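TICKET #2291
ISSUE: user wants both folds in one file
ATTACHMENT 1:
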Amino acid sequence: MMILNTPVLVLNQNYQPLNICNVKRAMVLVGVGKAELLTNGQGDIHTVRQAYTIPSVIRLHYMVKKPLMQRKLSRRAIFHRDGFTCQYCGVQGKNLTIDHIQPRSRNGPHTWENVVAACIPCNHRKAGRTPREANMRLAREPQAPRPDPYALFHHRNIMDEWQPFMPWIERH
């Protein structure tokens, strides 16, 4: 059934958004007494003997301590950190590349502090040199993003029923 794969928001015992699971997993958690249903946004599933409410938001009966994970270094994460803006000339767009400030050919590390978004012309102009050698300036010093416990939710489709539990997400 397609409805069993619908996303469900999972809240920690303190109502803090924790994760997203599917309806099937949420119904199991509620059924075995590990969670309670907070919002019914989908109707019911009927079996021969009983009707079960389809959850949209559930809350765990116990607290889950979720460690803060460092953000993974990826092209997409770098572009988001830099606001899809070339860090040398300020041009915004989707047609960007990754530039290593200290070039890899000179043993520059592949770390948050050594990579920036750059447009193709700036990346070619800088080539295998440092910004100083290429007479180019960075808009700002790159840093690793702070750990974000809500990163899982930033680039997802947020259902209307979830909004009261996610006040930091702006609705369009």
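ATTACHMENT 2:
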Amino acid sequence: MNKTILVTGGAGYIGSHTIVQLVKNGFTPIILDDFSNSSKTVLQNLEQIINQPITLLEGSILDFDFLLDFFENNSVDGIIHFAAFKAVGESVALPMKYYENNISGLINILKVCEKFKVKNFVFSSSCTVYGEPKGITSVSEETEKQLPTSPYGYTKWMGEQIIDDVVKSGANLNAVALRYFNPIGAHPSGLIGELPLGKPNNLLPFITQTAKGKWEKLTVFGNDYPTPDGTCIRDYLHVMDLAEAHVSALNFLFEQTKPCLEYINVGTGKGTSVLEMIQLFEKVTDLKLPYEIGPKRAGDVTEIFAKADKAKKLLNWEAKLTIEDAIRDAWNWEQQLEKLT
């Protein structure tokens, strides 16, 4: 049976790549997006990849009447909820913007799930729910959640709690909260990729834009962290692997016979420092990257990477692509960007 999946924030970075994998796996996706943090040019490029038209629902998750109208006239089998603001630094500067969008928007989506009996729900969570665990760098789902270091992190932390409470209340909801680490890369076609508005908050687009000449030099935020080279360490995974994890999560949910909630890490299990990423980029592209050391950023965790055994066990998912693959695909995307947007 062909299943229809509503993908909130589906025109965004991770959402658009997940649309590709949904179609590839026989699902019918509907994109819900208000384009506050994405571009409509993504749609035509997506259609070129999947070779079929995209169904678009343009509007905001904060507009409950708009959501009601859609669900009263359409049937969906599951929801993947990406729609959220996601920049750690910006959330420190603009906390109200993050709490309103990320928390109120989630509550609206859960309300329509309950009202219209949509029971399969995949939540875009984050490793930020672990905060900075004391003495631990490799975190499993059993690692105790810490108070986050940013308002963005709090919205994911509270988002998980809200979903947990809804499931425990007896609502007929099957949910998977995917706690992912640091997505990088682009579709291998170079037609879709990460498209930050303004100066990038994430490392790899900052690297590729600097290499392309959009910025004079890359800023490395701090080099005196207690790590081997003094820079922060993250678990970077290819966005196509992450997209596939969402499909695996949906398949898992459709197999469940009673309400459930699973928290699942999505990462490679390997940490890479900021300076190592710069060196890998230079190796893959044979380019020299200008960079400077700047001050530390508020809200940044020193080092964190995933134990991803549960994803393998429950979802039969594991990362297959390398950081070099992601760098190559991201650079390919960056080089094609001017003619695509």
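RESOLUTION: both attachments delivered.
EXTRA DETAIL ON ATTACHMENT 2: The first strand starts at residue 4 and ends at 8.
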